[in-house]
Amino acid sequence: MALKPATNPEVEAATIELTIDGTRVTAKDGVSLYDVIAMTGKIIPAMCYHYTFDPFGSCGMCLVMQEGKKAPVRSCTAKATAGMVIRTEGEDLFLARKKAVEKHLSVHPLDCPVCDADGHCELQDMAFEHGVTNLPNARQKFIPEDTRSLVLDFNMNRCIACAECINVCKDVLMIDALQFMKKGGFNQVVPKGDIPLQCEFCGDCLAVCPVGAITNKFSKYLYKPWQLKKTATTCNYCGDGCQLYLETKDEDVIRVTSHLSWKNKWGDRAETAKGHGGLCVRGRFGFEYIDSPTRLQRPLVREGNRFVEKPWLEVMDLVAGRLAEIKRRHGSGAIAGLMTARCTNEEAYLFQKLMRVVLGSNQLDSSARYGHLNFVRAMKRAVGIGRSLNTWEDFTKAKAVLLIGSNLTETNPLTSVRIKEAIRVYKAQVVTFDSAITNMAKLASHPFLITPGTEGLVLDGLVKTVIERDLIDEEAINQYPAAFEALKRAVSCLSLDHISSQTGISRESFQEVAEIFAEAPRSIILCAEGLVRRADGYQNVLKLIDLAWITGKLGRPGCGVNTVTEEPNEQGTVDMGVAPEFLPGLARFDDPTARERCEKLWGASLPSPGEGRSLLEILEGCKSGTIKALYVLGENPLATLPASVDVRSALERLEWLVVQDPFLTETGRMAHVVLPACTYAEKEGTVTNLEGRVLHIRQALDPKGESLPDWHIMTALASALDCPWEYQSVYDVQAEIRTLVPGYYNLGQPRKVQPVLDNDYWGTGYVREVAARYTGVSGARDQSRPFSLQIGQVLTHSGKLSTQAPGLMKIAPNTGRLHMHPEDMKKLGIQDREKVRIASERGSLQLDVEPDPSVAPGTCFFPEHFNEPPVKDLITVSVDPVTGVPAFKQSWVSIERV
Amino acid sequence: MSVGAVTKKILQAALFQEVWEAMKVTFKHMFYRPITFQYPREQRVIPDTHRGALGLLRYDDGRERCVGCDLCEAACPSRCIKVISAEDRERPLQRYAAEFYIDITRCVFCGYCVEACPVNALAMTKLYEFSTPDKRALLFDKKKLYEIGERYLEDGKKYLYAHHQEQDVQESREYRYYFPQSVLQPTQPPPKHLS
Amino acid sequence: MAAEDQRTTVYKVDPNHPESETLPTLRTEELLLNMGPQHPSTHGVLKVIMELEGERVVKSTPVMGYLHRGVEKLAEDGTYHQFIPHTDRLDYVCAMYNNFAYCRAVEKLLDLKVPDRAEYLRTIVAEVQRIIGHLFWLSAQALDIGAMTVFFYCFRDREILLDWFDELCGARLTTSWYRIGGVERDVTPSLIAKLKAFLDYFPPKIDEYQVFLEKNRIWLARTKGIAVISAEDAINFGLSGPTLRGSGVDYDVRKYEPYSAYPRCEFSVPVGKNGDTYDRYWIRMMELYESVKIIKQCLEQMEEGPIMAEVPSVTFPPKQRVFTNLESMIQQFKLFSQGFKAPPGEIYCGTEAHKGELGFYIVSTGGSKPYRLKIRAPSFVHMGAFDHMARGYMISDACTIFGTYDIVMGECDR
C-alpha cells in the first residue's frame, strides 16, 4: 500500500534515473521497479502481477539482480530509486525463477486433463518455458472444491495464492468479496467470511485467475480453451458497450471472456481510465439466451388462436401484401412502427427508412422513448448535442461527480467502475442523490438520501444555492446575461427551507455540495433513470444544464452533463432517426435542409413534418383505430408499459400486427405474424454506446434455425413492397449512413464534442422558458399512500432480454417479492416472506415481502424485469408534455398486512 | 574378341540363352511353398504394434477411463476426433466425455491420440476389417468405440505396452486413476508417495 | 497459316510414278494424344498431352494436379508435430523417408541434436525404405516393359520388409515412425533378428532379378539408349538421385552433406555413364547392394541408448512420467495442444531419398506452426525433364520414361 501515492497520477513525483540492462531509463520516484522495467518493453514473468492494481508480490517470479545485492530482488514490490543498476536477464535469474515455478508446481495437483484452464494457464506456461522436469518432493493438497456459489467454483487445490482475484475485487472493483483464509494447512481464497459467495458476480476474479482455481460454473468442463473460436464483439445488455469475446464451439456459445485477463497483464495504469476491460455479471454470464431453446426458429403466422410455422417466402409475401393493402386503403397514416434499442445502428437506419420511405409514415419510435429522449431533447435544445458530453476517461479523472437518481452499479456496472476508480485513484468527491441506498452511495463521499420524487427539487435547491452563495462563473454567464437574469428571477421565489424540508437535505448540505461541484476543476454530472425516466425528466435535465452553465462547467474540458442508457444502442437508435422528431444524424425532422438531403439521397419524398407520432401517441392511435398496422421490431410494449396505458386493447384493435423478435414475447403472442430475428451474436453491425463510441458487433455464430438478421428481413420487406433495396451486407448500409451522417463511424473512439450553446435558446427562448422550470413544487402527494413504490433495474438483469438467460435467472430469479426496508417492515409488523396488500390509485394486489436494507425507508422496490405479480400495473403513467416520454417507474402506494 | 567368344555369343543369341537362364529360376520356384495365403479364410498374423481401429478402454472395475480432456482432439492431425466433455451427472464434479466421435473415414491411423491421452483411455486394436456399404456407420460414436474397446481389450492393452504407453509400474497406475480435485470427497485414499 | 504450316507436312507422291497425276496429295497432321489420367502406366493420376508424329513423340506436356491435396497448406494449419502423418502421404511408397526428411528439416530449424542410437535407427530404417523404394520401382518398371515375373518377385521381398515395418511401428505404408528429436519406438531383438535374416537372404535375390533383366534382349532394347539425358541437361533440369547419377554426375546428399549415421558407414555411390534408362536401372540395382552394406554396418555399430532427445520444450515426455509428474503432464498438454515454438527463420534441408533429393523448406515466424512449408519433391522436379527426355522416342517408350525417374504422383502433386 506504500506504493499507492506513486501510482496516483495526481501526485507529482520526482523524476529519477536508473539503469536497466545497461540502458539508462527515467522514471517517477517510488514507482514499482517492475512497472519501470515493463515500460522499457522487457517482459519479466510474474504470476501475481496485473497492471490494474498495485503489486502484491507473492509469486516470486519477477526476480532481478540489483547491483550491490547478493540475492535477486522481487522487482514488483521493490521501489525504483535513483541510481539503481538492474539486470533482468541471465542464467542465475532464470534458475531462480525456475525455482519459484517449482515451488508452485510441487503442491499443484496433477489434474490438467480435467482442468478448464488447461491451455490457458500461466503456471503451465511458466513451467513449460522454464523447462521444469522431474520435481522432487511433490506433495498435494486435498481441499474439497467449494461449489456453493451460483456462478463460480473455487478449487483451491489449484490455487497458487497469487491474490490477483482478491486484489482486483478489492482495488479495481471495490467490492472486496474475497479474502485469504488459512484452512487445512493452506492459504486459501474464500468468499469473505467463508460463506457462499455473494457479490456482484462480475467474474473479474475468474478472468484474472492465472490457473484453474476459479472456474465458471456455466461452462464447467464443457471446453478446452484451444477448441474455442473467439469473436470480439460488443455486449448487448447495457449502454456501456463493453467489448467482450464470445467464445464459441461449433454452434454454441461456451463462455464469454473479457479483455481483462491474466494474459493481458502488462499495460499502462493510466490506460485504465478508459476502462479496465472487465465485464459485469450480465455480460459474462448472461450469454445463454443466444442458444436458448425458446428462440424462434421459423416464421409464425396466426391461424385462428394458434401459430403455424410457415416458410419465409410465403410469410414475407403475406406481410408485404397486407401492409401494401392497408397503405392503399387507409393511407400511410395507418401504419406505425416500434423498434427496440438493442438493434444495430444500421438496422435502426433501415427501420426509419423503411417506415418513412417505403411505407411513407413518420409514426415510428424506439425504446429510447422510455427516458433517454428526455435527455437527448434537452441537450439538443440547450447545447446542440444530443448525447452525453463526456467519456469514461473524463468520468475517471473527474474531481467531483454528481450522481443524481442513478443506481449506477446496478444499471451500468462498468460505468460505475469508472466512478469507483475516480474515487480510488483520482480522489474524486462523489455526491449521490437518490431515494435508495445504492452501492455507489456506500462508496461516495457525500451520499444523500432524498425523498422519493424530489429529484427536481434537489436541483432547484442546488441552482439556488449556487446563485445565493455566489459560486457562479462570471465568464460563462456574461455570455448570456439576460438568461442569467431570468434564471436569477426564477429561483428568487424559491425558498431553500421549503426545499430542504421537502427533499430531506439540509441547507448546509446544499452549500457543501454546491461548493464541491463549483470549485472542482473537473466536475461531472451523471443523471440516470431516477431523473430521465421520471416525470419532468426533460425540465430536470435542463436544470442540470443550468447548473453546469452557471458554474462554468459547460464546455470546459473534463466537465459536462451525462446520462447512462439502459439498452445498448439507445443513443444510436436516436442518432439514426428512429423518432418522429429526428432524421438520421439527429437533424430535426422539420429542418428543411436535412429533409432535402435525405430526400435526395433516398430518391423519395418524406412524410410532412406534422404527421409524426411518438410511442404513446401511436398506441393511442391504435386504440382509436386510426392506426391499422403496427410493425414491432424487438420491442415489447405490452410487457413494458403499465396496464393504465392499456396496450392490450390497443394491440387488439390492430388489423395487422407484425412482430419481429428472437423470442416469442408477450406482444408477439398477440401478433398476426411473428418473424424470427437473430440475436447480436449472429449478425454484423455497430452500436453506439453512452460515450458516443461506435462499436462493432461481429458475427460469432450462424443464425439459429431459419432466423435472419433484422436488416436482412427489412431489406427483403422493402423489396417485397416494390422498393428494391440493394444492400448485400450491413457494410452497404454503413456506406449510405456515411454519406448522410459524415464522421459517424469513429472506429470505436469516443467522439470528442464541444458544446455549442444554441443562440436561439440561450438568447431568447431561455428567458421565456425558465420561469416555468423552477416551480419549487414536487408532484402532488396523497398522504394516505405513504410509501413510494419504485420499479427499476437490478444488476443481473437488463430489460426483458436477460430473463431468457437461464444463468441469470438462476442468480436472480423472480421471487415475486416486494423489497422493503427492515425498519418499515418492523413498523408495520410484517415478517419476512409475509403477504401484504399493496394499493395505489390504479388498484391493489397481494404479494410477499422481503427485507432489503438497500431500499430506503419509506420506499419499496420491485424489479422492472418481471411482471409476475404485475406490480408495474399499479403505476400511473405521466407523460412529459414536451418529449412525450412516459414516466412509470415510481408511484405512491399504501402497504398493509393481510 | 576371339572367334570362339563371338561364336558363343551368336549361339547364345540364336538359342535365346538368357530366356533359358531366366526360365531356370522360374522353374526352381515351382518347388517353393507359395507365399500367398487365402484371405479371408486365412488371416494375416498381425503384430501387437499394429495401428488398427481405435477403441475406448475401461478400467478393470468397469469405469470409463476417458476423462474428456480433449487432448486427443487437439493432437489429431486430421481433425477426426470430436469430444464433447461435460460434468458427469451421476458423479458430481467429475469430468467425462459425454459424447465421443471418431470419424474413421478421416482417421489416418497415426496413433497420436493414443500417445496424447493422459489416462490411456484410447488404444488401437488389430481390427481392420470394418468396411461397410453405409458410410454413416463409419462415424464411430462413444458406444461403438467402447464396444471395440471391450471386444479387443487384449489387443488394446498389448498395443499400449508395445508402444511404451503403459508399463507395469504400480506407482504410475495408482496415480493416474486419481484426480483428487474433482471430487468433493475423495473416493479412494491418496497414493502412498503423495501422503 | 504459318503456324499451321509448321505443324502439318504435305507429302507429295513420287512425281515419277506413272499414276502420280491421278493421285491426290496426302496431307498429314500431328496427333494430339491425351495420355492418362487413368492410364495404368502413369503411376497414379497423371495426364500427358502428347503431340505425336506417327509413333514418335514431338512434344509432351504433363498436366499435373490430379492428386493435389494441399499438403503444404495443411502444414500451415497444424503444429510442426502434426505434419508428420501428412508427410506419409507424399510419396506413399516410401513414407519413412518423407518422415525422415521432414524431421531433419525441423531439427535443423530447432538446432536439435538427436541421440546416437536414434541416428543409427533412422539410418537403418531409411535404408530399408530405400530397398523397398527401389524394389517397388524395379517391379513397376519391369511391368511397364512387360516383365511380369520380376514384379512378383520384387513384391514378395518388399512384403517381408513391409511386415517388418508393421512390427516396428504399426503400419506398413503410412508409418509416421520418425519423431522430431528421435524416433517413436525402439527396435526389439526380434526385429533385429528378422532384419539380419533378411540381409542374408536378400543379396542373392538381387542377383536373381538381374538374371531376368540383365541379358534379356527385350529389356536391353527398351532401356539402352532410351531417354538419354546428358550430364549438363540433367543438372540444368535439377535432377537428383539415381536419375542424375545415371548421367555420370557423382552427387549424393549422403556423401556431400553427410547426415545421420551415414558419415560413420562405408558405402560407395554408383555412377552411370550414358544417362539412359539402362544406366539408371543399373545404379538402382547397385544401390540395393550398398543399402544392405549400410544396414549391416549400422547394426554392428549401434549401441544402447535413448531414442529421443530430451528437450522439454520440444520433445514429448515418456508416457510413464506423464502419469506421475506434473511437469511432464504440462509438457504433454502444451506440446499436443499448442506445439512448440520454433525460432523465427528460414531453413532448407535436403535429404537423399531413393528418388532423389527430397527437400523441406520451412519459413518460421516464431510461432508453433510453420508460416510456410515448401516441399522440394524429386518427382515434381523430374517431371520437368519429361518433355526433354521423351522427345523423339516412340510413344511406347513414354511409359518407361515415366518409370525411369521413378515418379509417384502423391509426391509430385502434393
What does this structure look like?
Chain A has 898 residues and is α/β, with parallel strands linked by helices. Chain A contains 32 helices and 36 strands. In chain A, strands 14-13-26-25-24-15-16 form a 7-stranded mixed beta sheet, with helices on both faces. Chain A has a 6-stranded mixed β-barrel with strand order 29-33-30-32-31-36. In chain A, strand 34 and strand 35 form a beta hairpin. In chain A, helix 17 (481-492) packs parallel to helix 30 (759-773). Chain B is an alpha+beta fold. Chain B has a domain at 54-179: Alpha-Beta Plaits, CATH 3.30.70.3270. Chain B is built from 7 helices and 5 strands, in the order H-H-E-H-E-E-H-E-E-H-H-H. The model of chain B is unreliable at 180-188 (pLDDT under 50). Chain C is α+β, with helices and mostly antiparallel strands and 414 residues long. Chain C has a single domain, classed as Cytochrome-c3 Hydrogenase, chain B. In chain C, helix 5 (116-145) runs antiparallel to helix 6 (148-169) and helix 5 runs antiparallel to helix 12 (277-301). Residues 1-8 of chain C have low confidence and may be disordered. Chains in contact: A-B, A-C, B-C.
Which descriptors would you attach to this protein?
heterotrimer, B: 195 residues, Alpha-Beta Plaits, two-stranded antiparallel sheet, 12% strand, C: 414 residues, 18 helices
Question: Nutshell version of this structure?
Answer:
The complex is a heterotrimer of chains A (898), B (195) and C (414). By secondary structure, chain A is α/β, with parallel strands linked by helices.
Radius of gyration of chain C: 24 Å
Query: So how many helices of chain C?
Result: 18
Q: Which class do the helix and strand fractions of chain C yield?
A: alpha+beta
Which architecture of chain C per CATH?
A: Orthogonal Bundle
**Strand tally of chain C:** 10
Q: What's the CATH C level of one domain in chain B?
A: Alpha Beta
Mean pLDDT of chain C: 85
From the N-terminal CA to the C-terminal CA of chain C, the straight-line distance is 41 Å
Shape of chain B from CA axes?
Answer: elongated
Tell me the span between the first and last alpha carbons of chain B. 91 Å
By secondary-structure content and strand pairing, the structural class of chain B works out as alpha+beta
Shape of chain C: globular
The tally of beta strands of chain B, per DSSP, is: 5
Average pLDDT of chain B, to the nearest integer?
81
